[in-house]
Design goal:
- By secondary structure, the protein is mainly beta.
- The chain has one domain.
- Helices cover 0% and strands 51% of the residues.
- The strands form 3 sheets. The chain has a 4-stranded antiparallel beta sheet with strand order 5-6-7-8, with no helix packed on it. It has a 3-stranded mixed beta sheet with strand order 1-2-9, with no helix packed on it. Strands 3-4 form a two-stranded antiparallel sheet.
Length: 114
């Protein structure tokens, strides 16, 4: 996942990552190179991975940094047709993330830094 957004550069014919302190998740059309924001988070939360459940629903796996800078995971189930997001937050000490996470699927799209 990329902080802020990615965009398609018509001249360079490739996807470019744009960085920011905030993060967002966009739904992008690979054919028309258009995208729409479906989720936005400030600097204390970010999305680590995303996957489709079916043609309508998707799941976002995220991390929230609490007041003690502890990393707490959460998931969001979204529906394109229903235009809805349902968040599920983990609570308790067992939920604190102690090791890093690397998304397996993001490498399938060739994206370069700006």
């Amino acid at each position: 996942m990329y902080s802020s957004s990615i965009h398609y550069d018509e001249k360079k014919k490739k996807y470019i990552a744009a960085y920011d302190i905030d993060s967002q998740v966009d739904l992008g059309g690979m054919q028309n190179h258009k995208n729409s924001r479906i989720y936005f988070a400030g600097s204390s939360a970010w999305i680590e991975d995303a996957a489709w459940i079916d043609n309508d629903r998707f799941i976002l796996a995220g991390i929230h940094s609490d007041e003690q800078s502890q990393r707490i995971p959460y998931i969001i189930i979204g529906s394109i047709k229903g235009k809805s997001l349902q968040a599920y937050h983990c609570t308790g000490k067992a939920c604190i993330q102690t090791i890093g996470y690397k998304a397996a699927n993001i490498g399938k799209i060739k994206i370069e830094d700006d």
